[in-house]
Amino acid sequence: MDPVSQAPAAPFLHTLPLFAGLSPDDCRELERRMKHREFPPQATIIREGGPGNAAFFILSGVVAVRRKDPTSGIEFLLSELRAGQMFGEMALITRKPRNASVVAVEATTCAVLEDEDFRRVVEEHPSICLALIAVLAERVEAANRQVGIDFVNLSRVQIDPRVLTLLPQPLVTEHHVLPIAFMNNRLTLAMTNPNDVVAFDDVRRVIKGVMIEPAVITEDDFRKFMSTTYAQALAKTEAAARPQSPRREAGEAKPAASVDLLQSDLIRELQLAEDTNPLAAETKQDLVIASEDAPIIRLANSILGLGIKQGSSDIHVEPMEQEVTIRFRIDGILQVVQRLPRKVQLGLISRLKILAKLDIAEKRLPQDGRISVTLEGKPIDFRVSTVPGKWGEKVVMRILDKGNTQLGLDTLISHPPVLAKVREMIAQPYGIIYVTGPTGSGKTTTLYSALAEINDPGVNISTAEDPVEYDLPGVTQIQVNKDIGLDFASVLRAFLRQDPDVLLVGETRDKETAHTAVEAALTGHLVFTTLHTNNAAAAFTRLNEMGIEPFLVSSSTIGVIAQRLARRLCQTCKEAYVADAASCRFFGLPEGSTLFRARGCNECGGNGVAARHGRARCARRGYARDGAHARHARPETLRRAPAD
Predict the structure, then answer these.
(1) Total structural domains in the chain?
(2) Which of 131, 146, 161 is the last residue in one of the domains?
(3) What is the chain's percent helix, strand, coil content, to nearest 5?
């Protein structure tokens, strides 16, 4: 066990602001009341919206704090907490619902102070109560900015509808707050609870740098105002924005799954923000401020969420001369989903770079990063790449759905004879299995699915990838890093000293990697790897070009799997037609044969394509193949050799 987990909690309590004023005796008393709990990796410790009935002090391990965006439903990582840090204390003190979820990243041990014990120890030890009161008083004093709090009757106040919409509706309803005046960077905030420090923090996250002047309103006034004046103000603002978004009516029914979400109230808010806070930014601080503007955050979240929900594999954010184009690659086809005003460029791209933990001030060099989110309980990663262009940085995000690693080979390979041969190949104790195909043909998914079928506690599996796209439980995964000399070949050589059974090499790119993989296969290991060739036969020629002798390839190779993703016609709009003579001759069909085509409809976005399915060809080791390859046959000859 980690030594920290064996240490008592008391020595750490005084380092926390909440308990800094406690005496050693009080700290020991608190520690005595705490219960130690262990949480396995990925266990949800507290859930957003849950009751604030306990505080947690981390003894060992790491936890991730996540918060769900109400617009897209995506959970974003806010921070990671480690041993010696605490979470949940403010919800315990205020008894308000949790405003974030906390999940164990690795095995974590916490000292837990439950509500009943907390109340009892506060009653029994007045010094603890006084210390907590002092901390809360400081927070309330800072929130109120040491000014008098006035009472406001909402029925007697004239409020500009544009001011009311400065805060998103979910925040208004959650904290029972209303922006009623805004002048000289001072926001008058009507609140049912002016001591709600969480509300102050959330408002400051939405409106950066604003000075908040709270005012008190009653709960009855708030409810009446929300059902009458507030609803009317929203309707007026939406009506004013409609000319800027002519397609809004079509998108109001399902905004979360609609392209129009990207331009309706988001662009309206951006127009308001532009008058007071232009997005033209030069310094790093300006970029951060622009990227954390509330409409920009919602816009970025909406793009990510919409890309996932529409089943796209890549999201392109491309600055042009007069606009920013958003394109999704769906079923292999790149299509424009929205054109945004150029004024959102700096803020949007900076926001995406911040999420990917990239340097937002560096615009001259390409950068690579990663965004991790959770949508409806499903973890999803975005592999982010930026390149400098003429009109600004272009961002491309590859969507990596971790659920795809759970797909079985029978789901990926529809032809039963090929499926049987592939399973026979991966059951071999040693040798190399090559998977070939162009970029985006599903090679990685096939490799991961094959590993999932043979993954077992009795099998030592190690992978070298660039980058690590999916997390595989029970598998040692290493990401190569050329900058420090950690390439595929060096990782593979290191694996051979780690008592491996199965090895996966992300890509065979050079002679050294190919030779090391062959050596591993010949010494009793099962090796999976990919090659960028157009067909199975070309894999042998490619290995020859890398300098691998034909007899080594023949003796080490179990087989080659060549695959493509074929588009499937939309079942809603497909129709039968009689093929012309030229088409029948091309496909080798009798004249007058019936074929199918899709016209395009709303279900498929007008493309006529609704999904893709895998098509694979399996070339196994055999006498004919070995003989042809050993004679340095050309790819055309190899393609005529028997294959499944």
Answers:
(1) 5
(2) 146
(3) 40, 30, 30
What single-letter DSSP state applies at residue 481? B
Which range marks the domain in which residue 163 is found? 150-217
Same domain for 456 and 492, yes or no, is yes
pTM exceeding the 0.70 threshold for the entire prediction: no
What six digits make up the tokens of 101?
């979820």
Q: How many CB atoms lie within 10 A of CB 65?
A: 19
Could you report the per-residue pLDDT of 410-434, keeping only the tens digit for each? 777 878 888 889 899 999 999 999 9
Question: Could you report the per-residue pLDDT of 45-64, keeping only the tens digit for each?
Answer: 998 888 888 889 888 999 98
How far is it, in rounded angstroms, from Cα 320 to Cα 343?
Answer: 11
Q: What six digits make up the tokens of 500?
A: 């491996």
- Dihedral angle, C-alpha 478, 479, 481, 486, nearest 10 °: 20
What SS3 class is residue 362?
A: coil
Rounded to the nearest 10°, the torsion over CA 441, 444, 446, 451 is 170
Query: Is residue 241 classed as helix, strand or coil in its secondary structure?
Result: helix
DSSP for 350-386, written as a single string: HHHHHHTT--TT--SS-EEEEEEEEETTEEEEEEEEE
- Which element (helix H / strand E) includes 202? helix 197-206
Q: What's the DSSP call for residue 293?
A: S
462 in the same domain as 414: yes
Residue 258 neighbours by CB distance under 10 Å: 19
